[in-house]
Specification:
heterodimer; A: about 220 residues; mainly alpha; B: about 500 residues; two-stranded antiparallel ribbon; 19 helices; globular
Chain lengths: ~220, ~500
């Protein structure tokens, strides 16, 4: 049986590792299981904190996160990927090797940024905040460096999962009503994006973001 | 009861529209619900100015004078937009561009959108405020893409991706504020509970919040909500979304959605002012404000599309609001709020008139619809007066609010900011005047559209412009409300 600190570190580490794996794999089908693993790890982080603090509300949140981010959201992304004839990120603006180097730089940067947060209340949990911040930054990097619509959805979800990780680590979750609301919002955004992809694809054939160039000044 | 009914009435109308098949009556019902919201908003304004803030639903909803003022703005613009929505949908259905089913979707989403905005300004909890603002993004995405053209879909994709990413930062900022609030320095630890993120309880511990964490949080909040406000450099979704959305939706988005996000910034700024002093939030807001003005001025100069012209002008006005908020005195905030109202009404009128133009002439290029004043005197005159009001000429209300903002900015030693602002405003005036001249004057083409615009379109717009003019001369009906609202968040 592993202890509280070890479980928390392991699960948080998996969240970041999953984000980096997204940069490494260009096959968009691979994004779905990686997202699911990340969602489950996030649920485990919340669950570990709930057990440690004997917090029932947080336990409910953990269960919710596990279901929504571990199963429902990956399933929705799968439904977008499944119909996509081009399943590889064929021409990212930055190649994989350079992306991984960039990820390393972003991770170092996130330790610097997070120092002030850890300093306010040093604990096992807050020392892990850099992992969450790094996940957010990797998500941003993915969003700006990839050109497939699905990659943009994945980038958005990485940012969201990173923010959820930071939220759990620094505050053991925001009040339940806010947690519920934000989970619902994320779910709806994914649904909206899914519908848009379907509409755009039916109009444009396949859907590369490069084709979105009609509007400009 | 008052607060609950302000939320329930538009929501219930939306639900009725969901089950009743589309007919114009459904659209009129939506307009009536907005009129009721406006009336309730007036009641709320009177109550909160005379007897202070009120709560409902065990403290989940809270309204002070600032919230009441925002309800008034939302009600006014929503009413104007709803009146035009009926005609917009009728014409779209008549020319086969829209099915009754999509008309139902439109009305339901607009009602959900208005409800979310009202929820945002009535939320006691800053987390709930975030949820409501994010929910507006979801409701409006399909509205932006409602016309279903590839351009409209492109605009809605950019809109939802950019705004979701932006607003995610605001959530991180909110979480950090919460983190600082449960670890305040110099005193008892605050209970880790549902009410910790309430604005009032945050204000009561603001002076004890950790400044390092709060600086980080405030930067994230300005970036995050700033995206939704349309402040440069996070503005790139705005011209696309505002030019592609149906005109009544553009009116709502430009007239109030931007201001609702700005309202969130004002609430957080009050906390940051108390925790950090005025210098840090002011620097942030001056940077984004000036950038917005410069971006708007440079892109307005060569603008050839009248809807995008109006969209860039929104970025300009949001920049002016950011600078006014940066000054932060009671006079500045009162002027900012008056500007929110003035801009909301003026921009709504212009977007609704341009929607009428776009629908009847099928293009949004300025060069293709010249000589509006001679061809279509009623619509042309409304556009002309609207543009004059928009660039801040007296007697219109934007003149009064801009003038007061400048005075307040000089009072707190932001003279150079006023100088830069003034240069940008001159450039913007020149740009809008030259494009406006091409739109309104000139030689009409031989086969140009001549038809007159129906009274049902022109009368509400003329009334709205008259209100703008009157408020610029006599602001007394609003004076005590503005005073009370400004003191809620002013230093």
């Amino acid at each position: 049986m592993i202890g509280y600190a070890a479980a928390l570190r392991l699960a948080s580490g998996i969240v970041l590792l999953a984000a980096v794996a997204m940069l490494w794999r260009r096959d968009l089908r691979a994004a779905v299981p990686v997202l699911a693993v990340q969602g489950v790890a996030l649920g485990v982080v919340a669950g570990t904190l709930a057990l440690h603090q004997h917090d029932v509300g947080l336990g409910v949140t953990a269960f919710l996160v596990l279901i929504v981010k571990g199963f429902v959201v990956p399933l929705l992304v799968w439904r977008v990927v499944r119909r996509d004839p081009k399943i590889r990120e064929t021409a990212p603006l930055v190649n994989v090797t350079a992306s991984l180097v960039a990820a390393a730089v972003l991770i170092v940067l996130s330790f610097v940024v997070s120092a002030k947060i850890t300093a306010l209340s040093p604990s096992v949990a807050t020392r892990l905040v850099p992992l969450g911040v790094a996940t957010i930054l990797v998500g941003y990097f993915l969003l700006v460096s990839r050109r497939r619509a699905v990659s943009q959805i994945v980038g958005l979800l990485l940012i969201d999962n990173g923010i959820a990780l930071v939220t759990f680590l620094v505050t053991s979750g925001v009040p339940l009503i806010v947690e519920l609301g934000s989970a619902l919002d994320v779910l709806l955004v994914v649904v909206v994006l899914q519908v848009l992809v379907v509409n755009l694809r039916s109009r444009l054939g396949t859907f590369d973001l490069d084709q979105l160039k009609e509007l400009h000044d | 009861m008052l607060l609950v009914s302000i939320l329930v009435i538009p929501l219930a109308t939306g639900l009725i529209a969901l089950v009743v098949p589309w007919r114009p009556l459904v659209g009129w019902m939506a307009a009536v619900s907005d009129a009721i919201v406006l009336a309730l908003g007036i009641g709320l304004a009177i109550r909160t100015t005379s007897r202070g803030p009120m709560n409902a639903l065990h403290g989940t909803l809270r309204a002070d004078a600032l919230s009441a003022f925002m309800v008034l703005v939302i009600g006014t613009v929503a009413l104007a937009a709803a009146l035009q929505s009926v005609r917009y949908l009728r014409v779209e259905i008549a020319r086969g561009a829209c099915t009754p089913k999509r008309a139902t979707l439109y009305i339901v989403l607009v009602q959900a959108f208005v409800t979310c905005m009202l929820g945002a300004v009535l939320a006691a909890n800053l987390g709930v405020l975030w949820v409501a603002v994010e929910a507006t993004t979801i409701a409006t995405t399909f509205l932006v893409g409602h016309r279903g053209t590839s351009k409209a879909l492109e605009a809605s994709w950019k809109y939802v991706v950019l705004c979701s990413v932006g607003i995610a930062l605001a959530f991180l900022g909110t979480v950090l504020v919460y983190f600082a609030a449960i670890h305040p320095g110099g005193g008892p630890v605050v209970a880790h509970g549902v009410n910790t993120l309430d604005w009032t309880s945050l204000m009561s511990v603001a002076h004890r919040l950790n400044p390092d964490v709060l600086r980080l949080a405030m930067a994230l909040i300005v970036l995050g909500y700033g995206t939704k406000v349309g402040l440069a450099p996070m503005h790139s979704w705005l011209p696309d979304a505002h030019s592609q959305a149906p005109a009544p939706v553009s009116a709502l988005m430009s007239g109030v959605l931007l201001s609702v996000a700005f309202y969130a910034l004002l609430r957080f700024k009050a906390i940051a002012d108390a925790a950090l002093g005025p210098a840090f939030p002011r620097t942030l807001l001056v940077v984004v404000g000036i950038t917005s003005l410069v971006v708007a001025a440079s892109l307005l100069l060569g603008q050839r599309d009248y809807k995008r012209l109006l969209a860039y002008s929104s970025i300009e006005h949001m920049g002016l609001l950011a600078l006014g908020a940066a000054a932060g005195s009671a006079l500045a905030i009162a002027a900012v709020l008056l500007h929110v109202l003035g801009h909301g009404i003026t921009k709504a009128v212009l977007f609704l008139a341009s929607g009428e133009l776009h629908q009847s002439e099928g293009t949004s290029e300025i060069a293709k619809v010249p000589a509006l004043l001679s061809r279509r005197p009623a619509l042309g005159a409304i556009m002309a007066v609207g543009l004059v009001a928009l660039v801040g000429f007296p007697p219109f209300v934007l003149f009064a609010s801009e003038f007061s903002m400048f005075r307040a900015e000089v009072d707190v030693g932001m003279g150079w900011v006023v100088a830069v602002t003034f240069i940008c405003l001159v450039v913007i005036f020149a740009a809008i005047a030259s494009q406006g001249r091409r739109l309104l004057l000139g030689e009409p083409a031989v086969d140009a559209v001549q038809e007159t615009t129906p009274r049902s379109v022109t009368v509400p717009l003329v009334i709205a412009l008259a209100v703008c003019g009157l408020l610029g001369v006599i602001a007394w009906p609003l004076q005590s409300l503005l005073h009370a609202a400004a003191h809620v968040v002013a230093r």
